[in-house]
Please model this.
Amino acid sequence: MLYIGVEAQETIKLKENMIQEVDFNVWPKGELNTAFAQYFIGNSYLAPLDAQNGGPVNVTFEPRCRNNWHIHHKSVQVLVCVAGRGWYVEEGKEPQEMRPGTVIAIPAEAKHWHGAAKDSWFQHLTYMTKVEDGSSTTWLEPVVDKEYEKLPGSNAPQITSSAEEYHARMFPGYKSDFKRTDLSLSSVLTTSHSMR
Model:
């Protein structure tokens, strides 16, 4: 059994209840999205970046905020994550986690939704391309909590860098390939702690 230590255990517990913030000085938060609020669960904010000339719009989602399922007809929507962490879900496909630098081009006619992780603010730029005559958006049903909670890692404890550093000091030379949201490692930590 791997024993990390009480200090690391407390760090993990603390991290589980934290919300990842974003720096609104880098990408503006924008104004409360009242025009499309009926198609969102939670609050979102819009900051047009020269949108009147075809530029993108920065959309900010508070933690757990997501838009309804929807379809863009006769156009491709592009999402570029610039801050925080969120999700893109296309019907019939595995959810895709979005972190800064993730770019997703959503094909025309694809039923999908996107929104923030439960523990993080999320910002993405969005713009439309390959727009044909008669393009439109059809808004559909909300993404209910029961569906949202099925996202991978939505309840996963976060292994913090300080926990990794503590582990490295306790076990010099040991190289672990665990991910920061590895549930099996979290269960080992919990089991090891309870065996004390």
Q: What stands out?
A: The radius of gyration is 20 Å.
